[in-house]
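[job 0412] stage=fold_complex status=start
inputs:
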Amino acid sequence: MDIVVCVKRVPLTEEVDLVIDEQKKGIKKDQLAFVLNDWDNYAIEEAIILKEKHGGEVVAITVGSEDDEEVLRRSLAMGADRAIRVDAGDIRRFDSFGISKILARVVKDLPYDLVFTGVLADDDNGGMVGIMMAEELKLNHACMVTAIEIEDGKARTTSELEGGLGEASLVELPALITIQTGINEPRYVSILGIRKAAKKELKIINLADLGLSDEKLSPKTIVEEVYLPPETEGAQMLTGDPDTIASDFIEILTKKGVME
Amino acid sequence: MSEIFVIVEHRLGDTRDITFEMLWKAGELAQKLSYTVTAIILGHDVKSLAENISDRADKIIIFDDERLKNFNADIHKEIIYTLIQESKPALTLIGNTSWGMELAPCLSVKTDLPLATDCIDITPKDNTFIAQRQMFNGKIFSNISFAKSEGCLLTIRAGVFPKDKIGDRKAQIIQQDFPVTDIPVKKSFIEFVETAAGDVDITQAELLISVGRGIGEEENISLIKELAEALGGVVSCSRPIVDKNWLPKYLQVGTSGKSVSPKVYIAVGISGAFQHMAGTSGAGVIIAVNKDPKAPIFRTADYGIVDDLFKIVPVLKDKILEVKKG
Ligand SMILES: Cc1cc2nc3c(=O)[nH]c(=O)nc-3n(C[C@H](O)[C@H](O)[C@H](O)COP(=O)(O)OP(=O)(O)OC[C@H]3O[C@@H](n4cnc5c(N)ncnc54)[C@H](O)[C@@H]3O)c2cc1C
Ligand SMILES: Cc1cc2nc3c(=O)[nH]c(=O)nc-3n(C[C@H](O)[C@H](O)[C@H](O)COP(=O)(O)OP(=O)(O)OC[C@H]3O[C@@H](n4cnc5c(N)ncnc54)[C@H](O)[C@@H]3O)c2cc1C
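[job 0412] stage=fold_complex status=done
writing structure:
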């Protein structure tokens, strides 16, 4: 069971004042801390679980800068066998269409039974790179998957629908699956894992190596402008010392008839 | 005259709300631009669905076939691709739902048309459109335009447009046959699986105390349980808490969990992602406790407390117990 997993490094934005950049095309990222996209953490874990059961190799790929290698090293420390970074310069000049074309081109030359991506990346929130790649590669696909069992060369998957409903399907391999959070419990990275990761292969390739050029990857969507959310009235804040806040809180509950 | 396509989403015989919402937006744009609205229904035994929307579209194209009984993104893609090639609609609207998130990206590559996902608004501009989307879970908004193309695909967030009828249309209903061309089916539907029911039903609760990732560790959930107990309320949660197996799935509020309608919904350590808030639209009053004053939840909550939950929750609990003792 050879599995390719696509991973993205994303900024943490909790409790930070996001600042729009001068071109109004994105946010300033120099002050932010970065992590492996949550969905991709689950995808790496799922690949390792399947490899432990069925054998094979797990390859992690990212399209990104040298800094983004951090998420590849993390993937290796979790148990991926090797990693590939596509150095494509500033990736903000591509849209999802371009990124999926690049990833598809890399995957094409790798051995694989399964390709995993996350459902969504926590930064741009596009949620389309995975299935676009499946179409580029003419692969079968399953979306938003919360369970995978391999049976006779097929994957039995459960896709999440709305309202807690799931949909079980049988997908012929090779296939691309977009992984939803909660599918497993991602392992912690151990010191031993980090040590082992240092010896694993991390290959860097560029667009020319892949026979790709900006021309073939030109975006179909254009970011006109990014901006902070329009002001709304918002919540009425309970302020003051904790005791005052607690009294106001109880007053609201009493008024709404939920304090007996 | 240009056309707007709306891909009708239905499940187990019911037209899903997102369909009416997309038809509302399509109708509004069509009025402004003198376009026509075409609804596309793929399924089996779907004639009654067409009747439901016959006053909201100018044309309804139906593919009614046994092989369309269950949703299959690849089959939908092939059929809609053919329709797009024939009619070249200016816009094609698809729900940003589990099914739509599988259909739209492969349709975009197949048709070579641009795709903007999870759009919360669409405005016409100089013969094309501007799509409004969010990133960073709603902390940033963006306006997206499209490179020159023969149309574009947009997936629409559920719940942002009204379900109402707009304008007066009378649809011409056209039945088409399943294209004979062989579509290889490499994915087959097995069954629908329901979430196991639990000992409490959060959809019936009058007071919910909902816990999110801000709680940090599994053992801290006791803090929320104690608050709920003091108040006589029921505990619910956001998705990450279920993902980590800290609380069971039947307590999850949101698009992939339950929609709730308590008199009061207290959200503790929840950021307010739309997938969560979509499940709280029936709540009477929302009170949010979050240490980040910029947390998106304060945009939708009625009342807010900006504080560390570990500091304020015990104070709230003690005060309630004190008041209740009388
Ligand atoms: C404000 C803004 C709006 C945008 N709107 C659109 C739009 O409407 N249409 C459009 O086509 N593009 C759009 N883009 C561009 C698009 O978001 C980027 O091309 C981006 O690189 C894709 O990222 P995502 O976060 O959307 O990925 P998603 O599709 O959300 O990511 C899903 C999965 O794909 C994989 N993946 C994603 N990126 C990488 C990577 N670099 N390396 C390896 N794996 C990866 C991961 O497994 C991830 O979990 C927009 C960008 C911005 C900044
Ligand atoms: C297809 C799909 C379906 C989904 N369905 C659902 C769904 O049904 N329900 C759902 O909830 N989510 C759902 N999600 C996930 C959703 O997008 C968010 O990721 C999720 O709601 C975030 O949960 P959270 O607010 O608990 O966590 P976070 O977004 O991590 O927020 C934690 C919050 O806690 C605050 N905090 C941290 N520490 C403290 C402290 N000490 N005191 C006070 N505040 C603190 C932080 O400021 C932050 O705002 C879905 C996602 C997808 C893609």
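[job 0412] summary: The first helix of chain B runs from residue 17 to 33.
[job 0412] exit 0
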